[in-house]
Amino acid sequence: MPKIEDNLRNPLICQNCKEYMSIAIDISKVKGWAVEVKMPTYSCKKCGKKEYLDYRKYDIYEILPWITNYPVKPNWVEVYEHLWFKYDFLDYYWIPWLYRDFSKDWHLTPVFFDKDLLLYYNNHPDFNVILSSYSSWSITYKGENFLDWWFWINKNNKIFMRLWDLYDFFKDGKYEKELHRFRASNLNSDHEVVSDYYFNQIEAVFTDSDNERKIFDLYNSFNEIFRKKFWLNLFRININSLKLWYKSPILDEKHQIFDSYSQLSKLLIEAINVWELKKFILEKKIANDLDLKDKWWLKTFEIITNKVLNINSSLNILCPLYVLYDLRSLSDHLSIESFESTYNGCKSRLEFQEWWFLEFHKCVILKIIKMFDILIRAL
């Protein structure tokens, strides 16, 4: 996670361990007040530290809605009520740095949804869910932008959008069917927005992509640099024409994740331009026919990384691709008795010990990203 300097004091940053704290709502009394109020507590799950919001920085009229026996909503809420979304309008005040005392801009209020909303669109033949990172998503329709505004995923694995973005998308009534689907997945607020959204738009700390999109960008860069240097395409596929249709796994569900392995294997391994690479290897006298006998995608690519890019122990560098290939083979045998031992072997090779399928998928992706970084530097 991005490091926040001390001069950018954010109440969500734990001053003990520098982790991001979670928000819980307590009913309590404020010193000098005769009534109980809703008061957010910031708590750090790592070290146990707790802090209360400093309510004194707000005008008394701004915090009146917190009082439990004074159920007042600000006028701006009425603008959005026809959408019938559940949200906590007080999140705008409680979550650090959403509040704008100079502009009263409530557009940043988060609205939360279950991840099954994205699952529907990702499984629909006309739609696709595009990840820019593991915590930010958008939706396309037949390869074109559909929902331009981003979803984000918080630490509790819920997705959320800004209230204004939802209003802007649904305001003209054009997407009434989609509005009903969004309502069906709408959840009560859990007051948690730590994600790329918070880093990029609130803290102005821009994080790099950390998922398959990053792989696709590096794949293109590596192929282009290699082509300019050796007049040869490493890969047979233009990944730009396919990456919009790639289906990222959304839930921690075995079949989704292994379907992703199959797709990635086709794009990254089976697309290796093996015949042209073998021809190149023979022309440059890097190896002979006997060396190339029975060698296919990865073994041929290993010769290139070892002899052309001069990367010693290239097998270790390419280990994430070998693991990906084995995972792709497992995708056709998810129920066989040897699945667990083979799968655990794949995890061990990438030094991963947790049991969650989705977390290991992230590990595989990050290892492949690191691999491409090394290969590009070698060129």
Which helices and strands appear, and what pairs or packs with what?
Layout: E1 22-29, E2 36-43, E3 50-52, H1 60-63, H2 91-94, E4 110-113, H3 116-123, E5 127-133, E6 136-141, E7 144-153, E8 159-162, H4 163-170, H5 176-185, E9 186-187, H6 196-202, H7 212-230, H8 254-268, H9 274-283, H10 289-292, H11 297-308, H12 314-317, H13 319-330, H14 339-349, H15 357-378
Antiparallel strand pairs: 1-2, 2-3, 4-8, 4-9, 5-6, 6-7, 7-8
Helix pairs in contact: 7-15, 8-13, 9-11, 13-14, 13-15
State the gist of this model.
The chain contains 15 helices and nine strands. The longest helix has 22 residues, at 357-378. The protein is of the alpha+beta class.
Structural description of this entry:
The protein has a six-stranded antiparallel beta sheet. A three-stranded antiparallel beta sheet has the order 1-2-3, with no helix packed on it. The chain is elongated. The longest helix has 22 residues. The N terminus is likely disordered. It has a domain of 167 residues. By secondary structure, it is an alpha+beta fold. Helices cover 40% and strands 14% of the residues.
| Dominant shape | elongated
What is the number of beta strands?
9
Distance between the termini: 30 Å
* pLDDT < 50 stretches: 1-8
